[in-house]
Design brief:
Blueprint: H1 2-6, E1 12-16, E2 19-22, E3 27-30, H2 33-36, H3 45-57, H4 69-81, E4 86-92, H5 95-112, E5 120-124, H6 133-137, H7 142-145, E6 155-158, E7 162-166, E8 169-174, H8 176-189, E9 193-198, E10 202-203, E11 209-210, H9 215-225, E12 229-233, H10 247-250, E13 257-260, E14 272-277, H11 278-282, H12 304-322, H13 325-341, E15 347-353, E16 356-361, H14 377-387, E17 390-391, E18 393-395, E19 398-401, H15 409-427
Parallel strand pairs: 3-17, 5-6, 5-9, 9-12, 12-13
Antiparallel strand pairs: 1-2, 2-3, 4-14, 7-8, 10-11, 13-14, 15-16, 16-19, 18-19
Bound molecules: pyridoxal-5'-phosphate.
Pyridoxal-5'-phosphate (PLP) binds near residues 94, 128, 129, 204 and 233.
Length: about 425
């Protein structure tokens, strides 16, 4: 917190497209998509218009015991874009809550079908699912959560696969050790395991760690073999980040629970959703005194303003994707990363997929000793990047690049060349 207090604080007053403006009128490219949420840019006229129209109807009416047309329509649309068979939607208002709901529904399901001993969660190494207690328990993110370990529930952790990909091509991939490890955990304890939880395709908060194509299908098959639920956390990757609207739909893998947030409302308003299967929902039916109901609700769950934005954003995202613009941006982004950073002495590794990348920094080519943690080189590069009109977030000595999906070719060049200058000026 001392560091936080010592940093120059930026007050962002307005946004336009991919740009943010501070109170002094200086503009910055939003290279962090406002914490990985922004899809269509800031201040989008079409989204603004539907939001104003909805505001003239109603800002909020509870979704607990009631419904509203935009919530119902959004539920229908989410079912449509998800793999067939995910037919039930529980709304909430942030990614961590979407995870809590999936975990609680999984635990309750096993109780309701007479297998209360199935209580464990299996997570992948380096997983991050949010900062609430259930989400921390299901994660493997010591930097964020170790301090709270004694208050969280026990989980099992399996090895992550290896996947090095650039220019849209996988250069090194090995999922066998990861799958063998998962299989042995399931084999040993499946009678006590409720669910396996996974951020499919990219683990964002772990520093854009990638999974090889086909990995998700293998994990699904293992969950089927050992009768455990599969919870997919698409809070980061969902809504276009990897190039497809949902990773699970594009890989044709149906999870038992699907968690969505962040890009769901294009970076406008808080909203999240947890989808599940009818077969799971049916276990929760019964007379009131059975206690089978899922007693869980958040005050602003399914907020109509947020649901309206989500519907409009989804419509716009579908045309962005169908027009080929999203694929184009991904290609330009990859080419630009390659042309600016291949062979750069301060770049140890680049992980890139879709419109997401992590650049691991190092003191110099062949330099084996890393910087001291308190050197905060990643942070220093990001502060320097402000002078080049960029807002970026580091993850220790990695720089994460997650621009809005509508970023133009010129803006991509501005982003990557500005980052390169910032690295050169800070490190060389
Ligand atoms: C994969 C993943 N899951 C869950 C979360 C938590 O979402 P929220 O910050 O909305 O609680 C995040 C946030 O970064 C995330 O990246």
């Amino acid at each position: 917190m001392s560091e936080y207090l010592s940093l120059p604080l930026l007050h962002i007053e307005k946004g336009q497209g991919c740009w943010l403006y501070d109170v002094e009128g200086k503009r910055y490219l939003d290279g962090n998509a406002s914490v990985w949420t922004n899809v269509h840019g800031h201040n989008d006229p079409e989204i603004n218009q539907v939001l104003r129209d909805q505001l003239d109807r109603i800002a909020h009416s509870t979704y607990l015991g009631l419904s509203h047309p935009v919530g119902a329509e959004l539920g229908r649309r989410l079912v449509e874009i998800s793999p067939p068979g995910l037919d039930r939607v529980t709304f909430s208002d942030n990614g961590s809550c979407a995870i809590e709901i999936a975990l609680k529904q999984s635990f309750q399901y096993w109780q309701l079908v007479g297998k209360p001993e199935k209580r464990l969660v299996v997570s992948m190494e380096n997983a991050y699912h949010g900062d609430t207690f259930g989400a921390m328990s299901a994660g493997d993110s010591p930097g964020f959560h170790e301090r709270f370990r004694s208050w969280t529930f026990e989980n099992r952790v399996f090895k992550a696969p290896i996947c090095k990909e650039y220019d849209g091509e996988v250069h090194e991939a090995d999922m066998s050790a990861s799958l063998t490890n998962l299989e042995s955990i399931l084999q040993a304890e499946s009678d006590q395991i409720a669910s396996v939880i996974l951020e499919p395709s990219i683990q964002g908060a772990a520093g854009m760690r990638l999974q090889p194509p086909g990995f998700l299908r293998e994990v699904r098959d293992l969950c089927d073999r050992f009768d455990t639920h599969l919870i997919l956390d698409e809070v980061f990757v969902g809504f276009g980040r990897t190039g497809s609207i949902l990773v699970c739909s594009s890989e044709n893998v149906r999870p038992d629970f699907l968690c969505l947030a962040k890009g769901l409302t294009a970076g406008y308003l808080p909203l999240a959703a947890t989808l599940t299967r009818d077969r799971i929902f049916e276990a929760f039916l019964g007379e009131f005194d059975s206690g089978n109901a899922f007693f869980h609700g958040h005050t602003f769950t399914g907020n109509p303003l947020a649901a309206t934005v989500a519907l409009k954003s989804l419509e716009k995202l579908e045309s962005l994707s169908h027009s080929g613009s999203l694929d184009h941006a991904i290609r330009v982004f990859g080419n630009s990363l390659r042309s600016h950073f291949t062979g750069h002495p301060n770049v140890k590794e680049i992980r890139h997929r879709g419109l997401a990348a992590a650049i691991d920094l190092q003191p110099g080519a062949g330099e084996t000793s890393p910087w001291e943690v308190n050197d905060r080189k990643g942070l220093k590069v990001c502060l320097r990047a402000r002078d080049h009109g960029l807002l970026l977030r580091p993850l220790l000595d990695s720089i994460l690049l997650v621009p809005p999906l509508v970023i133009s070719d010129e803006e991509i060049e501005f982003l990557i060349s500005g980052l390169r200058k910032s690295i050169d000026e800070t490190l060389i």
